[in-house]
């Protein structure tokens, strides 16, 4: 039985020399829901971009038993659904349907299956009526849901989210949290939303200055006020 | 996760870097003007102009190789001048027959083409040294100082500022596409889609980028208006130019003037 995500001794520095990740090791079991927290600039987004090989540093990253490398990129990107912080980056097609269909179409699936996958994915995020809409004109909450559908249509094993609740009003946030709770996938979410972490993610990893500062059950870490304060986090 | 490579400025502490940007700007323009006005075939003057820009490149510590490498950029544009080899009347240097076509290369045409190529190559070098040794905001100040219309300078400034934002946005769009470009792992199915489909996706992305740039410009304008912008670009007065800089400006203009006079001597 392989892990969903297995990161060993990962280090990465940006072309300008800024060291963004230092010796990060992390493994996540299938079905586990893990929150990645830490201050701005801690390296959360950088770490996430390693999970499907958009960035590659020193060390090894394995996803669903496959080592992330140029040869496995196609498979890895089909198995890891990456949802970017800004849905505007993710939704680049003229209509919602086109966007959700992009992944399956790229994979070369037959038209019937593409349509079925789009329908299923939109259904899963309760947005079936939106297929013909123009993504450009949706509300933030709607865009977030569509962004999730665009990766669900690829039937990934792992869902990786960058700041899923950022910029949402309370009602959209609430319905997004409910939606994430419904999805039976392995999940890793980088977030500042500590109340969502407590509600949705049984395990929590604190990243600070590119290192894993703590990794444990959310309930335990949340009580360690000194630890949270040391890494710029607030207890809720 | 930003794009840095667009900025041609390379920091340094050379004489050229320290020169007042207004002086640099005027001298670079004067150099380009001198190149443009030098008549065709004034080879000795081209050598002197090259020596001048070479001396400046060495003084700037940017590295002659760096400047020369970037100057290759001028060559594609030089190709636009290629037809004059064939169209200028004069003594025939070479005749080319391609099928039933007769192409004649005239000697004056060749001289003119080589002169244009050399002149653009020299001019580009001056522009490269200017852009590489002067931070862009200071260049904008210099443009204002020589009375380039303020609105135009403001547009240059905004373009520069948002070029990076736009390039970053394009980078993120590409990244989001790459993240969803997987393969199904099913045997017999090739990933990637056909060319027409990929072209349509790229077209959608380009349109998307355009819409966002358009909307952002609206938001920027609103932000400007809400801080009192009324269509008039205002700015702080510029500091005075020091006497040493005046001296450099004068010396530079005199040298270029002498070169230009020489060129008419040799050219005619």
Mind explaining what this structure looks like?
The complex is a heterodimer of chains A (236) and B (268). Helices cover 38% and strands 25% of the residues of chain A. By secondary structure, chain A is of the alpha/beta class. In chain A, the strands form two sheets. A six-stranded mixed sheet of chain A has the order 6-7-8-3-9-10, sandwiched between helices. In chain A, strand 7 (158-162), helix 7 (170-182) and strand 8 form a beta-alpha-beta unit. The longest helix of chain A is centred in the middle third of the chain and has 14 residues, at 111-124. Chain A is globular, with a radius of gyration of 18 Å. Chain B has 268 residues and is mostly helical. Chain B has two domains: 15-146 and 239-267, no CATH class; 149-179 and 200-235, no CATH class. Chain B is built from eleven helices and two strands, in the order ααααααββααααα. Chain B has helices at 15-18, 21-37, 43-59, 64-71, 75-78, 84-87, 107-133, 136-145, 150-179, 195-225, 243-267; strands spanning 92-98, 101-106. In chain B, strands 1-2 form a two-stranded antiparallel sheet. Chain B starts with 14 loop residues before the first helix and ends with a helix. The A-B interface holds A 14-16, 45-46, 49, 52, 54, 74-79, 82, 84, 86, 88-90, 92-94, 98, 102-103, 105-109, 136, 150-151, 154 and B 1, 4, 169, 172-173, 175-185, 189-193, 197, 201, 204-205, 207-208, 211-212.
How large is the count of helical segments of chain A? 10
* Discrete helix count of chain B: 11
Structural class of chain A, please?
A: alpha/beta
| Count of strand segments of chain B | 2
Biggest interface and residues each = A-B, 35 and 29 residues
Oligomer: heterodimer
Strand content of chain A: 25-35%
Termini of chain A, distance in Å?
Answer: 36 Å
CATH class division of the domain at 5-86 and 157-230 in chain A: Alpha Beta
For the sheet with most strands of chain B, the description reads: 2 strands, antiparallel
Question: Would you identify the CATH architecture of the domain at 5-86 and 157-230 in chain A?
Answer: 3-Layer(aba) Sandwich
CATH superfamily of the domain at 5-86 and 157-230 in chain A: P-loop containing nucleotide triphosphate hydrolases
Report how far apart the termini of chain B are: 56 Å
Regions with little confidence, pLDDT below 50 for 5+ residues of chain A: none
Q: Which strand-content bin applies to the residues of chain B?
A: under 5%
Give the % helix of chain B: 55-70%
The 3D shape of chain A can be described as globular
The number of distinct β-strands of chain A equals 10
Number of domains of chain B: 2
